[in-house]
From TrEMBL:
The chain crosses the membrane at residues 39-60, 72-91, 97-118, 130-152, 164-182, 203-226, 232-250, 262-281, 287-312, 324-345, 357-377. SUPFAM superfamilies: MFS general substrate transporter. Pfam families: MFS_1. It comes from Pseudomonas farsensis. Gene3D superfamilies: MFS general substrate transporter like domains. This is MFS transporter.
Amino acid sequence: MPIRHAPARLAFALCLITLAVNLQAPLYIAYADLSGRGAAATAVAFSGYVLGVLPVLLALGGLPERIGRRPLIPAALGLSITATLLTLLAPGLEALAAARLLLGLGTGLASASGVAYLGELLGDQDSSRAANWFTASTSLGFGLGAALTSLFLLNGPTLTPGSFYLQLVLATLALLLVWNLPDLRSKVRTPMLRLPSYPAGSLAYGLAMLLAWACSGLVIALLPGILHQHGLSAWSGFSTFCVISCGLLFQPLARRLPSAKSVMLGLLILPCSYALLAWGADRGSLAWVLLGSFAASSACYGFIYLGGLAAVDRLAGSDKVRSTAGFFLLAYLGFSLPVIFTGLVSDWLGTRMALEVFGAALLLGCLAVCASLLISLKARKHHQGHGCTTIVRGDHA
Protein backbone atom coordinates (compact mmCIF):
# COMPACT_ATOMS: atom_id res chain seq x y z
CA MET A 1 0.00 0.00 0.00
CA PRO A 2 1.45 3.43 -0.92
CA ILE A 3 3.03 5.48 1.85
CA ARG A 4 0.50 8.26 1.21
CA HIS A 5 -2.08 6.02 2.88
CA ALA A 6 0.09 5.53 5.97
CA PRO A 7 -1.41 8.45 7.98
CA ALA A 8 -4.95 7.17 7.32
CA ARG A 9 -3.96 3.65 8.42
CA LEU A 10 -2.44 5.02 11.62
CA ALA A 11 -5.51 7.21 12.27
CA PHE A 12 -7.75 4.14 11.82
CA ALA A 13 -5.66 2.23 14.36
CA LEU A 14 -5.80 5.13 16.85
CA CYS A 15 -9.58 5.22 16.45
CA LEU A 16 -9.84 1.48 17.22
CA ILE A 17 -7.51 1.75 20.22
CA THR A 18 -9.68 4.46 21.75
CA LEU A 19 -12.96 2.82 20.63
CA ALA A 20 -12.24 -0.02 23.06
CA VAL A 21 -11.78 2.38 25.98
CA ASN A 22 -15.49 3.17 26.56
CA LEU A 23 -16.95 0.07 24.94
CA GLN A 24 -18.19 -1.24 28.30
CA ALA A 25 -19.54 2.12 29.57
CA PRO A 26 -23.28 1.28 29.12
CA LEU A 27 -22.73 -1.92 31.15
CA TYR A 28 -21.21 -0.27 34.23
CA ILE A 29 -24.50 -0.54 36.14
CA ALA A 30 -24.86 -4.22 35.23
CA TYR A 31 -21.27 -4.88 36.37
CA ALA A 32 -21.90 -3.02 39.66
CA ASP A 33 -25.11 -5.02 40.28
CA LEU A 34 -23.23 -8.27 39.64
CA SER A 35 -20.59 -7.25 42.18
CA GLY A 36 -23.04 -5.67 44.66
CA ARG A 37 -21.17 -2.35 44.67
CA GLY A 38 -22.06 1.36 44.42
CA ALA A 39 -20.95 4.49 42.59
CA ALA A 40 -17.59 4.79 44.36
CA ALA A 41 -16.54 1.23 43.47
CA THR A 42 -17.62 1.79 39.87
CA ALA A 43 -15.56 4.98 39.74
CA VAL A 44 -12.50 3.16 41.14
CA ALA A 45 -12.84 0.38 38.56
CA PHE A 46 -13.28 3.01 35.84
CA SER A 47 -10.11 4.77 37.01
CA GLY A 48 -8.02 1.62 36.67
CA TYR A 49 -7.48 3.10 33.21
CA VAL A 50 -5.28 5.84 34.63
CA LEU A 51 -3.17 3.34 36.56
CA GLY A 52 -2.28 1.92 33.16
CA VAL A 53 -1.62 5.29 31.55
CA LEU A 54 0.59 6.74 34.30
CA PRO A 55 3.52 4.25 34.09
CA VAL A 56 3.80 4.89 30.35
CA LEU A 57 3.69 8.67 30.68
CA LEU A 58 5.91 8.83 33.78
CA ALA A 59 8.44 6.02 33.40
CA LEU A 60 8.53 4.98 29.74
CA GLY A 61 8.96 8.35 28.05
CA GLY A 62 12.07 7.13 26.21
CA LEU A 63 10.33 4.12 24.67
CA PRO A 64 9.35 5.76 21.34
CA GLU A 65 12.96 6.82 20.76
CA ARG A 66 14.52 3.50 21.83
CA ILE A 67 12.33 1.08 19.85
CA GLY A 68 10.69 3.45 17.33
CA ARG A 69 7.16 4.77 16.98
CA ARG A 70 5.62 1.94 14.96
CA PRO A 71 5.92 -1.00 17.42
CA LEU A 72 3.89 0.89 20.03
CA ILE A 73 0.77 0.97 17.86
CA PRO A 74 0.39 -2.83 17.34
CA ALA A 75 1.14 -3.27 21.06
CA ALA A 76 -1.68 -0.86 21.94
CA LEU A 77 -4.07 -2.66 19.60
CA GLY A 78 -3.13 -5.99 21.17
CA LEU A 79 -3.86 -4.63 24.64
CA SER A 80 -7.27 -3.32 23.48
CA ILE A 81 -8.15 -6.75 22.06
CA THR A 82 -7.09 -8.48 25.30
CA ALA A 83 -9.17 -6.06 27.41
CA THR A 84 -12.29 -6.66 25.31
CA LEU A 85 -11.82 -10.42 25.56
CA LEU A 86 -11.46 -10.12 29.34
CA THR A 87 -14.84 -8.39 29.77
CA LEU A 88 -16.45 -10.87 27.38
CA LEU A 89 -15.20 -13.89 29.33
CA ALA A 90 -15.59 -12.60 32.91
CA PRO A 91 -18.03 -9.66 33.15
CA GLY A 92 -18.00 -7.75 36.45
CA LEU A 93 -16.30 -4.84 38.19
CA GLU A 94 -13.14 -6.84 38.86
CA ALA A 95 -12.73 -7.72 35.18
CA LEU A 96 -13.63 -4.12 34.27
CA ALA A 97 -10.84 -2.79 36.51
CA ALA A 98 -8.30 -5.17 34.93
CA ALA A 99 -9.53 -4.34 31.43
CA ARG A 100 -9.34 -0.62 32.13
CA LEU A 101 -5.74 -1.08 33.32
CA LEU A 102 -4.83 -2.77 30.01
CA LEU A 103 -6.70 -0.11 28.04
CA GLY A 104 -4.79 2.58 29.92
CA LEU A 105 -1.48 0.97 29.02
CA GLY A 106 -2.52 0.80 25.37
CA THR A 107 -3.80 4.36 25.20
CA GLY A 108 -0.68 5.60 26.99
CA LEU A 109 1.52 3.98 24.34
CA ALA A 110 -0.58 5.48 21.55
CA SER A 111 -0.75 8.93 23.19
CA ALA A 112 3.00 9.05 23.86
CA SER A 113 3.92 8.60 20.20
CA GLY A 114 0.76 9.18 18.14
CA VAL A 115 1.05 12.91 17.40
CA ALA A 116 4.77 12.77 16.63
CA TYR A 117 4.33 9.65 14.46
CA LEU A 118 1.47 11.23 12.49
CA GLY A 119 3.60 14.33 11.93
CA GLU A 120 6.43 12.21 10.53
CA LEU A 121 4.10 10.25 8.22
CA LEU A 122 2.39 13.42 7.02
CA GLY A 123 5.79 14.97 6.34
CA ASP A 124 4.45 18.38 7.29
CA GLN A 125 6.36 21.24 8.85
CA ASP A 126 3.01 22.46 10.22
CA SER A 127 2.65 20.47 13.45
CA SER A 128 -0.99 21.50 13.88
CA ARG A 129 -2.04 19.15 11.06
CA ALA A 130 -0.82 16.12 13.00
CA ALA A 131 -2.67 17.35 16.10
CA ASN A 132 -5.83 17.69 13.97
CA TRP A 133 -5.57 14.11 12.72
CA PHE A 134 -4.87 12.79 16.21
CA THR A 135 -7.70 14.63 17.96
CA ALA A 136 -10.22 13.71 15.23
CA SER A 137 -9.43 9.98 15.24
CA THR A 138 -9.28 9.63 19.02
CA SER A 139 -12.36 11.78 19.66
CA LEU A 140 -14.38 9.60 17.30
CA GLY A 141 -13.06 6.41 18.89
CA PHE A 142 -13.61 7.42 22.53
CA GLY A 143 -17.30 8.12 21.90
CA LEU A 144 -18.13 5.54 19.25
CA GLY A 145 -17.47 2.49 21.45
CA ALA A 146 -20.13 3.42 24.00
CA ALA A 147 -22.65 4.36 21.30
CA LEU A 148 -22.17 1.03 19.49
CA THR A 149 -22.76 -0.91 22.72
CA SER A 150 -25.92 1.09 23.43
CA LEU A 151 -27.19 0.34 19.93
CA PHE A 152 -26.75 -3.39 20.47
CA LEU A 153 -28.36 -3.17 23.93
CA LEU A 154 -31.53 -1.72 22.39
CA ASN A 155 -32.29 -5.29 21.25
CA GLY A 156 -32.30 -6.45 24.88
CA PRO A 157 -30.04 -6.64 27.95
CA THR A 158 -26.91 -8.73 27.60
CA LEU A 159 -23.40 -8.84 29.04
CA THR A 160 -21.93 -9.85 25.67
CA PRO A 161 -23.20 -7.28 23.13
CA GLY A 162 -22.26 -7.53 19.48
CA SER A 163 -20.18 -4.35 19.74
CA PHE A 164 -17.53 -6.34 21.64
CA TYR A 165 -17.16 -8.80 18.75
CA LEU A 166 -17.17 -5.94 16.24
CA GLN A 167 -14.29 -4.27 18.08
CA LEU A 168 -12.30 -7.50 18.01
CA VAL A 169 -12.74 -7.84 14.25
CA LEU A 170 -11.96 -4.19 13.45
CA ALA A 171 -8.97 -4.06 15.83
CA THR A 172 -7.53 -7.17 14.17
CA LEU A 173 -7.96 -5.49 10.78
CA ALA A 174 -6.22 -2.36 12.11
CA LEU A 175 -3.40 -4.55 13.42
CA LEU A 176 -2.82 -5.92 9.92
CA LEU A 177 -2.92 -2.42 8.39
CA VAL A 178 -0.26 -0.93 10.70
CA TRP A 179 2.01 -3.97 10.91
CA ASN A 180 4.29 -2.77 8.11
CA LEU A 181 3.96 1.00 8.50
CA PRO A 182 7.27 2.81 7.90
CA ASP A 183 9.18 4.06 10.92
CA LEU A 184 10.82 7.21 9.62
CA ARG A 185 12.76 8.16 12.75
CA SER A 186 16.07 6.50 13.58
CA LYS A 187 16.23 4.71 16.93
CA VAL A 188 18.19 6.59 19.58
CA ARG A 189 19.86 5.23 22.73
CA THR A 190 18.04 7.44 25.18
CA PRO A 191 17.23 6.84 28.88
CA MET A 192 13.98 4.94 29.34
CA LEU A 193 12.97 7.20 32.21
CA ARG A 194 12.14 10.50 30.57
CA LEU A 195 9.71 12.42 32.70
CA PRO A 196 6.97 14.50 31.06
CA SER A 197 7.95 18.09 30.44
CA TYR A 198 6.04 21.37 30.44
CA PRO A 199 7.57 23.96 28.10
CA ALA A 200 7.08 27.58 29.11
CA GLY A 201 3.43 28.52 28.69
CA SER A 202 2.13 24.95 28.30
CA LEU A 203 0.98 24.17 31.85
CA ALA A 204 -2.28 26.14 31.56
CA TYR A 205 -3.27 24.10 28.51
CA GLY A 206 -2.71 20.87 30.44
CA LEU A 207 -4.81 22.15 33.34
CA ALA A 208 -7.58 23.07 30.90
CA MET A 209 -7.55 19.47 29.65
CA LEU A 210 -7.67 18.23 33.26
CA LEU A 211 -10.93 20.13 33.75
CA ALA A 212 -12.36 19.08 30.38
CA TRP A 213 -11.70 15.38 30.86
CA ALA A 214 -12.89 15.51 34.46
CA CYS A 215 -16.27 16.53 33.05
CA SER A 216 -16.29 13.84 30.35
CA GLY A 217 -15.05 11.23 32.84
CA LEU A 218 -17.94 12.04 35.16
CA VAL A 219 -20.42 11.55 32.31
CA ILE A 220 -18.86 8.21 31.30
CA ALA A 221 -18.41 6.73 34.78
CA LEU A 222 -21.28 8.05 36.89
CA LEU A 223 -24.02 9.27 34.56
CA PRO A 224 -25.14 5.70 33.66
CA GLY A 225 -26.04 5.13 37.33
CA ILE A 226 -27.93 8.43 37.52
CA LEU A 227 -29.86 7.69 34.32
CA HIS A 228 -30.62 4.18 35.64
CA GLN A 229 -32.49 5.74 38.58
CA HIS A 230 -34.86 7.31 36.03
CA GLY A 231 -35.20 4.22 33.82
CA LEU A 232 -32.97 5.70 31.11
CA SER A 233 -29.90 3.46 31.37
CA ALA A 234 -30.27 2.31 27.74
CA TRP A 235 -29.29 5.83 26.68
CA SER A 236 -26.07 6.09 28.69
CA GLY A 237 -23.91 5.12 25.72
CA PHE A 238 -25.43 7.85 23.61
CA SER A 239 -24.70 10.42 26.32
CA THR A 240 -21.08 9.23 26.26
CA PHE A 241 -21.02 9.53 22.48
CA CYS A 242 -22.49 13.04 22.67
CA VAL A 243 -20.00 14.25 25.30
CA ILE A 244 -17.01 12.98 23.30
CA SER A 245 -17.47 12.44 19.59
CA CYS A 246 -19.77 15.38 18.87
CA GLY A 247 -16.75 17.56 19.61
CA LEU A 248 -15.57 16.62 16.12
CA LEU A 249 -18.19 18.97 14.70
CA PHE A 250 -16.50 21.91 16.41
CA GLN A 251 -12.89 21.07 15.53
CA PRO A 252 -13.00 22.89 12.14
CA LEU A 253 -13.96 26.08 13.99
CA ALA A 254 -11.30 25.43 16.64
CA ARG A 255 -8.66 25.16 13.90
CA ARG A 256 -9.46 28.66 12.69
CA LEU A 257 -8.99 30.16 16.16
CA PRO A 258 -5.67 30.89 17.88
CA SER A 259 -4.98 28.11 20.38
CA ALA A 260 -5.37 30.29 23.49
CA LYS A 261 -8.71 31.72 22.29
CA SER A 262 -9.96 28.24 21.39
CA VAL A 263 -9.15 26.93 24.86
CA MET A 264 -10.64 29.96 26.63
CA LEU A 265 -13.86 29.62 24.61
CA GLY A 266 -14.03 25.97 25.68
CA LEU A 267 -13.49 26.91 29.32
CA LEU A 268 -16.40 29.37 29.13
CA ILE A 269 -18.71 26.77 27.57
CA LEU A 270 -17.72 23.92 29.91
CA PRO A 271 -19.35 24.94 33.25
CA CYS A 272 -22.53 26.15 31.48
CA SER A 273 -22.94 22.89 29.57
CA TYR A 274 -22.20 20.85 32.68
CA ALA A 275 -24.93 22.74 34.58
CA LEU A 276 -27.36 21.87 31.80
CA LEU A 277 -26.61 18.15 31.73
CA ALA A 278 -26.46 17.88 35.55
CA TRP A 279 -29.86 19.60 35.80
CA GLY A 280 -31.27 17.18 33.22
CA ALA A 281 -29.77 14.15 34.96
CA ASP A 282 -31.14 15.19 38.34
CA ARG A 283 -34.65 15.52 36.88
CA GLY A 284 -34.50 12.51 34.59
CA SER A 285 -34.83 14.60 31.43
CA LEU A 286 -33.06 12.77 28.61
CA ALA A 287 -33.34 15.69 26.17
CA TRP A 288 -31.51 18.09 28.51
CA VAL A 289 -28.86 15.45 29.33
CA LEU A 290 -28.10 14.88 25.64
CA LEU A 291 -28.16 18.61 24.87
CA GLY A 292 -25.83 19.33 27.79
CA SER A 293 -23.53 16.48 26.74
CA PHE A 294 -23.44 17.82 23.17
CA ALA A 295 -22.54 21.31 24.42
CA ALA A 296 -19.90 19.92 26.79
CA SER A 297 -18.39 17.96 23.91
CA SER A 298 -17.78 21.19 21.99
CA ALA A 299 -15.55 22.26 24.87
CA CYS A 300 -14.00 18.95 25.97
CA TYR A 301 -13.16 17.42 22.59
CA GLY A 302 -13.48 20.44 20.32
CA PHE A 303 -12.03 23.73 21.51
CA ILE A 304 -9.95 22.60 24.52
CA TYR A 305 -8.63 19.27 23.20
CA LEU A 306 -7.61 20.52 19.76
CA GLY A 307 -6.52 24.00 20.84
CA GLY A 308 -4.57 22.72 23.84
CA LEU A 309 -2.79 19.90 22.02
CA ALA A 310 -1.88 22.15 19.08
CA ALA A 311 -0.48 24.78 21.47
CA VAL A 312 1.62 22.25 23.41
CA ASP A 313 2.88 20.67 20.19
CA ARG A 314 3.96 24.13 18.94
CA LEU A 315 5.59 25.13 22.24
CA ALA A 316 7.42 21.80 22.54
CA GLY A 317 9.94 22.43 19.77
CA SER A 318 11.89 19.23 19.17
CA ASP A 319 10.84 17.55 22.44
CA LYS A 320 7.31 16.69 21.32
CA VAL A 321 7.05 13.24 22.95
CA ARG A 322 7.79 14.43 26.50
CA SER A 323 5.64 17.55 26.14
CA THR A 324 2.69 15.55 24.78
CA ALA A 325 3.14 13.12 27.68
CA GLY A 326 2.92 16.02 30.13
CA PHE A 327 -0.26 17.28 28.48
CA PHE A 328 -1.92 13.86 28.65
CA LEU A 329 -0.69 13.22 32.20
CA LEU A 330 -2.81 16.13 33.45
CA ALA A 331 -5.69 15.10 31.18
CA TYR A 332 -5.79 11.57 32.59
CA LEU A 333 -5.46 12.76 36.17
CA GLY A 334 -8.59 14.78 35.48
CA PHE A 335 -10.20 11.71 33.97
CA SER A 336 -9.81 9.75 37.23
CA LEU A 337 -9.31 11.57 40.54
CA PRO A 338 -12.32 13.95 40.34
CA VAL A 339 -14.50 11.02 39.22
CA ILE A 340 -13.48 8.91 42.25
CA PHE A 341 -14.06 11.84 44.61
CA THR A 342 -17.48 12.57 43.09
CA GLY A 343 -18.41 8.87 43.35
CA LEU A 344 -17.55 8.91 47.07
CA VAL A 345 -19.62 12.06 47.62
CA SER A 346 -22.51 10.43 45.74
CA ASP A 347 -22.43 7.37 48.03
CA TRP A 348 -22.13 9.50 51.19
CA LEU A 349 -24.34 12.52 50.51
CA GLY A 350 -26.44 11.62 47.48
CA THR A 351 -26.35 12.25 43.75
CA ARG A 352 -27.56 15.85 43.82
CA MET A 353 -24.91 16.99 46.30
CA ALA A 354 -22.20 15.19 44.32
CA LEU A 355 -23.24 16.95 41.11
CA GLU A 356 -23.33 20.34 42.86
CA VAL A 357 -19.90 19.92 44.48
CA PHE A 358 -18.34 18.87 41.19
CA GLY A 359 -20.02 21.76 39.37
CA ALA A 360 -18.71 24.33 41.85
CA ALA A 361 -15.15 22.96 41.58
CA LEU A 362 -15.39 22.92 37.79
CA LEU A 363 -16.55 26.55 37.64
CA LEU A 364 -13.74 27.76 39.91
CA GLY A 365 -11.15 25.79 37.96
CA CYS A 366 -12.32 27.14 34.59
CA LEU A 367 -12.22 30.73 35.85
CA ALA A 368 -8.71 30.27 37.27
CA VAL A 369 -7.26 28.73 34.09
CA CYS A 370 -8.98 31.38 31.91
CA ALA A 371 -7.43 34.11 34.07
CA SER A 372 -4.01 32.47 33.74
CA LEU A 373 -4.27 32.34 29.94
CA LEU A 374 -5.43 35.95 29.76
CA ILE A 375 -2.49 37.11 31.90
CA SER A 376 -0.10 35.09 29.71
CA LEU A 377 -1.56 36.61 26.52
CA LYS A 378 -1.31 40.16 27.87
CA ALA A 379 2.27 39.59 28.99
CA ARG A 380 3.20 38.26 25.54
CA LYS A 381 1.57 41.23 23.77
CA HIS A 382 3.34 43.63 26.10
CA HIS A 383 6.66 41.90 25.45
CA GLN A 384 6.12 41.98 21.67
CA GLY A 385 5.13 45.65 21.79
CA HIS A 386 8.22 46.49 23.82
CA GLY A 387 10.35 44.58 21.34
CA CYS A 388 8.87 46.48 18.38
CA THR A 389 9.54 49.80 20.12
CA THR A 390 13.16 48.84 20.63
CA ILE A 391 13.60 47.94 16.97
CA VAL A 392 12.10 51.25 15.80
CA ARG A 393 14.44 53.18 18.04
CA GLY A 394 17.36 51.20 16.69
CA ASP A 395 16.35 52.00 13.12
CA HIS A 396 16.17 55.70 13.89
CA ALA A 397 19.57 55.55 15.44
